Amino acid sequence: MQSPYSSVYKRKKPGVRSSSVANATKLDLTPNTFDFFLPCPRGLEGALADEVKALAAHSPSLKVGTPAPGGLPVRGTLTDAMLLNLHCRLPSRVLLLGGRCSYADAEDIYHLARDLAWEKWFDVTQALRVDVTAERSPLESIKFAALRVKDGICDRFRALTGERPDVDTAHPDVRIHLHLRELDALLYLDTSGEPLFKRGWRSEHGAAPLKEHLAAGLLRLAGWTPGDVLFDPLCGSGTLVIEAAQIAANRAPGLDRTFGFEVLRGFDANAWSALREQARQAVRPVAPGQFFAADIDPANVRMTLDNARRAGVEGAIAAEPGDVVAALPPVDAVALPAGRAAWLISNPPYDERIAPEGEAADDFAPQLARALKQRFAGWHVALLAADLHWDRALRLKPRRRIVVFNGPIECRLMLFDMVAGSARGQ
């Protein structure tokens, strides 16, 4: 992918900095294409690249870069940014690169923020928020660097208009993201607003819920396809089955929410309306008998059905209370038509949902393994385990282990093909 930087700040001796607007990459409405970065949970970068390539097949201006740790760079138009926000399930945001600089201290970052043409995108009446992330940054305080970004933006508006924009950390109109690397700082304009995993259908959730973008990523990594049966016997608030049902229904994940780009200058309301209408027309019905959920807590079952209703897939999901160690297959995997498979995919928790009688967590893994071996022959199984001792405790040999991160927690997605005699030492 061609570099977007015609010129950037060059790192010189500490205390020596450029302050000319001409030396910063500018936020501008020309040219018509921009560089974006799509952050995602670590371990999903390749799957995200595949997802965006499928969209790029319908948009020649959308170019996919090489996956980087924690995300994917792409290049495209503002309409492509709308397309990515509307249809992508795996990223957490779509960030438009405004500029970057090499830096010796936070003042270099202040000058970058001050010299970028933010007025091309929003005005002084819109409240902003600045977030910061860092990898190997030499700065002692990354929070101070974020503060200097805010100062730079506000000082620019004050110089242009005599006023400063407000800062609102709770409900900002505009979000700015600073990412600090070891040698350079990057400033992004957030086109998403609320994180993309907030699809707009969740009213409540249980303890430690699986975020929607990670759930969609697990489905992809496991190998589940939209025609396959899916059963989550530890469904919690229903995230996995709802994501899968929406995929099967070809329902865009961003169809029922708003986005940050809608309040930016240069926003093409007609193009957005056309994209959203195309997405609505593409939704297809999903017949019952494909998606099943269960949980030992009846409140979680009610929550799953309520969330499914708001997500537009209530009729596609059957959910009922049940103990996973006594679960029965909702369909006969062997009897499925050719080309269709049955999947049990779940994120087993360590809490009262799996230990109603007070069993220790270490006792649960072999109980689950025994249930899978005895009753789920012919099924494909994918379990996300944050406890790396699960591999031994299950006494099942996975055909594959995939490292994926749930936030900062390193997990293993363990894949099994259940056949008779697949357990060891039982």
TrEMBL record:
Sequence ranges assigned to domain THUMP in this UniProt record: 80-191
Keywords, sorted A to Z: Methyltransferase, RNA-binding, Transferase
Leader sequence segment: none
PROSITE patterns assigned to the protein according to its UniProt record, in alphabetical order: THUMP, UPF0020
Molecular function as annotated in GO: RNA binding; rRNA (guanine-N2-)-methyltransferase activity; rRNA (guanine-N7-)-methyltransferase activity
Alphabetical list of CDD domains matching this protein: THUMP_AdoMetMT
Name this protein carries in UniProt: 23S rRNA G2445 N2-methylase RlmL
UniProt organism field: Thiomonas bhubaneswarensis
